[in-house]
Amino acid sequence: MSTVTNLAFFRARPGRTNELGIALMALVEPTRSESECLTYNLHQSVEDPDVWFVYENWKTASGLDAHMHAKHVREFLAAAPTLITGDVELRRFSMISAFPTRAWDA
Could you tell me the pTM of the whole model? Predict the structure, then answer.
């Protein structure tokens, strides 16, 4: 089974970008501790600071599915309507290339 990549995009409500950033940062460590998580990285747009996205790689699709039902994710999603405008945009991908072991192996 191939590695699964998930991209999650968020747009903060006006005046709520700092609070959204704090809430998203609170997901990083517990998510990285999940056994199926390979990478989980939070990004903020340099062009529009209200736009955030999470880049995550999972060993399996079932690992990502389990993550989406984890307590810390459920708590974030319950609070999200007060922090974001619109829906969370989720995009799931199948990794075609392998993780390089060294930069020059890529």
Answer: 0.87
